[in-house]
Amino acid sequence: MSQPIDIVKDPYVFEFLGVPENKPMLESDLEQALVQQIEKFLLELGRGFMFVGTQQRITLNNTHYYVDMVFYNKILRAYVLIELKTKKLIPEAVGQLNMYLNYYAAEINDEQDNAPIGIILCTEKDSIAAEYALGGLSNNIFASRYISYIPDKEQLIAQVEAVLKEWHGKHD
Questions:
Q1: Chain centre to alpha carbon of residue 156
Q2: I need a labelling partner for 119 at 20 to 30 A (CA). Which of 22, 47, 89, 99 fits?
Q3: Confidence class for position 160, pLDDT limits 50, 70, 90
Q4: What global pTM score does this model have?
């Protein structure tokens, strides 16, 4: 049986949006661009994803909250809630998404649904901060980077070298 870790990618490549490289973008603009290109976005997400909607309202104690994007993955039989962040991952985003997942588990899921999954799509994540922010939660929350364009050859080589250096540092 597939597990949530099997479907979450890192990074996601949003080159199909055609947004200018290195141009600041608002979360609402990113969301609108993804919705306009939903078919391509579904292909980038991977197998089994179905689009449910954007800005899905959750009301708790007369306060409204909005999940940026909601999908359903038929392979995992689970809702997938996506929070878009146009900056570095911050711990507050994890708490926000964890609240949404608890709500979906209690109020939206049917008996045949598995626990909902959360993905925070951000431009940058510090691995250590992400580990502490995401650690110890009972919900499946993943932080994945997104990039607007595939890096050029030199950037790819530098990224591979950095990953190998980090891996060797942990295994030496």
A1: 22
A2: 22
A3: confident
A4: 0.64
Placement of tokens 């909005």 in the chain: 66
DSSP assignments along the chain, one per residue: ---HHHH--SSEE-GGG-PPTT----HHHHHHHHHHTHHHHHHHH-TTEEEEEEEEEEEETTEEEEEEEEEEETTTTEEEEEEE-SSB--HHHHHHHHHHHHHIIIII--TTPPPPEEEEEESB--HHHHHHHHTT-SSEEEEEEEESSPPPHHHHHHHHHHHHHHHHHHH-
20: left (phi over 0), alpha (psi -120 to 50) or beta: beta
For residues 100 and 61, give the distance between their C-alpha atoms in angstroms, rounded to a whole number. 14
How many C-beta atoms lie closer than 10 Å to residue 32's C-beta?
12
Phi-psi region of 46 (alpha: psi -120 to 50; beta: other; left: phi over 0): left
**Residue 53's closest CA among 31, 21, 75?**
31
